[in-house]
Amino acid sequence: MKSDQQRPRFHLAFPVDDLDKARAFYGGIMACPEGRSSENWVDFDFYGHQIVAHLAPGECQMSPDQCQDVATGGVDGKAVPVRHFGLLMAWEDWEDLAERFKAAGVKFILEPYVRFKGETGEQGTFFLRDPAGNALEFKCFRDEGGIFAR
After folding, report:
1. Handedness of CA 149, 124, 69, 77 (dihedral sign)
2. What residue stretches are annotated with the VOC domain (predicted)?
């Protein structure tokens, strides 16, 4: 990457069973601006990254390989969804987003908490599902230099 280019952004497309619910979750609660759309998909500006909710109701019916995956991994003795996506955020933004989800009554898979408190890599994290069942994780680091620290 040339130094005068902006940082790469990711693009992620995922299935949802209801575009109105996706709009209310990503556009409403998360305040992600909506981009282009059709009757079958919606683009969202996911904090500078492009995510696309594709209408695929057959994919969101408790299918183990899609929205409601059953595979979990152990993190701090807690079971978290292996298949998930999310964001690394500034600490204050992470706290604000957690409060927005709480105020909206969104159920957490893993409530917001701080890992490695006082250590290298100290981070806040929480997991939840969107209305279609897609698992998301939101994280923040006390020091961004600790993101890849061992």
Report:
1. positive
2. 8-141
| Full-model pTM | 0.85
- How far apart (Å, rounded) are the C-alpha atoms in residues 8 and 95? 25
Domains of the chain (ranges plus CATH)?
A: 11-57+67-146 (3.10.180.10)
Nearest to 14 by CA among 65, 87, 48, 82: 65
Closest Cα partner for 129 from 1, 5, 29? 29
Asked whether 74 and 40 are in contact (CB, 8 A), the reply is no
**What does each C-alpha distance from 48 to 9, 88, 105, 117 come to in angstroms?**
7, 12, 26, 29
Measure the CA–CA gap between 145 and 107, rounded to whole angstroms: 31
List, for residues 96-121, the tens digit of each pLDDT value.
999 999 999 999 999 999 999 998 88
pLDDT in tens, 117-142: 998 889 999 999 999 999 999 999 99
Q: 59 pLDDT exceeds 80?
A: no
